[in-house]
Records
---
Amino acid sequence: MIDFHCHLDLYQSPPAVADESQRRGIGVLSVTTTPSAWNGTAKLAAGRSAVRTAIGLHPQLAGQRKHELALFDTYLAKTPFVGEVGLDGSPECRTFWEDQLEVFDHVLQACSAGDEKVISIHSRRAAKDVLNQLDQYSQIKTPVLHWFSGSHSQLGRAIGRGCWFSVGPTMLAGAKGRDLVAGMPKDKIVLETDGPFVRVRSQVLNPWDIVTVLGPIAELWGVSEHEAKRQIEANERALLAPVASALKADY
Ligand code: MN
């Protein structure tokens, strides 16, 4: 199984978390928050087949770091994975909203120009705006909405757009999140931790904690945990299929 959204470089000991994920056979999509973090973060994937690195520029940093877009373009050629990118409509991020729009638009344009990319997208309090932007880039086939928390009508729009969804333990812990997950197509869901930012009972989540989502998902779907795992693993293969050739070439 694969953790599709993890900030591996921000753990206290990234190599230890990477090694343990590798040992347990848990895949990690290691997202970056700034292009300048790429070199250090990509090193964590060296010699560890379970780890893949995504190039990102987090919307909360768009104001301070938009000058790194040229670096983003440089590293984009090295990976089929992009993230963390997107928009954040929280009041504290509204002050640099124009920068966010500029950065996300640049990212989507760059991603639609070349080979297929898997894109892990943040949309907190900005689901409508993220979907508006995605609608302008129909060439993008594999957007993955990370920790989606929009309305049900926005969820309907995202499903219509063909979005994937990565869901984590915290989403499944609350009624609103569970309700949204119940409304997502079963064949469009993969798992994530968003570690180390996310804690459950004061413990930082590690990539292998994604398995704790299987129980709640199985319950929502009315199937066994075994069947939920089978479905999620089939989803992971389908999601990665468009970038399979890039994976073989790069790693
Ligand atoms: Mn994140």
---
Amino acid sequence: MRIRICRALTVVLALLVMYPVAAPALDNGLARTPPMGWNSWNKFACAGLNEQVIRETADIIASNGMKDAGYEYVNLDDCWQISRDASGNIVPDPSKFPSGIKALADYVHSKGLKIGLYTDVGTNTCAGRPGSAGHEYQDAKQYAAWGIDYVKVDWCHTFPGQNAEASYTLFRDAIAASGRPMVFSICEWGSNKPWLWAGPVGNLSRSTDDIQDCWSCKRTWGGNGVVQIIDLMNNIWMYSGPGHWNDPDMLEVGNGGLTTEEDRAHFSMWALFSAPLLVGTDLSHMSDATKSILLNKEVIAIDQDPLGIQGHRVKKDGDLEVWSKQLANGGRAVVLFNRSASAAPIAVDWTDIGYPDSISATVHDLWSGKTTTDQKGSYSAQVPSHGVVMVTVMP
Ligand code: GLA
């Protein structure tokens, strides 16, 4: 009897080590699938942000097919704010936003889209603008009055030893008290392992330091290339799901630092991760290649799969890897990922993705459109350097 109990406990412990239980997700009814939209930072940074850019971006998203493909949020990042007035109310920069934030929000809403703002739980934002420390409830109330739908909250200029979980919980409660539903995006760069506590606090939490517009380029201050982020994401796949998503940062697709092949790989991997898809490029100068990547509806459907499971690596042979994501329909999305400097064949065996060797499956390539039926045991494809082949496998 005692041996049986011991065995049962060992099995439970082993399962917990293999599949740690994620904290329950924030239940504010939002972000049941990963949020999709656009954010100003990766392209326009501080100096380039103004109301004209936001209006033009909203016009383009509403008319170029992006809205139909699911892109919804138009988000202002750092530098929309400039000071506080005598009552402590946050003041938008009048030189960049002469019409004010309420008028801008009304405009974005008139296009059938939603609008987001950025702040910080420290005294200042990363670009040195006023942060929300001590003004959490006041700011959330103001955002609600303006009609804001999404808030990204950064971690710069916090006090030494400031408790991240407590700070972001305070902000969550401030948003709830404002009475307006707003997607709550936690941005503390993975410094305090948010995947362990941010589930019930925010709708998404940044898992890594800032993305850089490059394939592989770890910066000394912490910035990460696409490949570094991909590796970091693999370790935390079990902590993401409907209502709370791991956030590998905003997309660099179209910003010029990556080749088209690398852009395609970046977008495919973000979709496999169930990552928020926040486009970070200048939509008014988007190439056809960029557009065809950002508008691939089959890849977007993998990102938005209602099961909301983050994909992870199932096989690695040097620079050649197989990644898999379980889908709601029982199929798998599979990315054959080639980090090497030359093209190479990569094979996924059905046993790598949880199917018996004996089954036949339909394999559909999400970038070429090719479909292969009755595929037995495995599927192999030639994968370009720094590129992917992304398929669905349906038994
Ligand atoms: C931090 C964030 C970025 C961006 C900038 C703005 O670096 O991680 O995503 O918001 O601040 O200053």
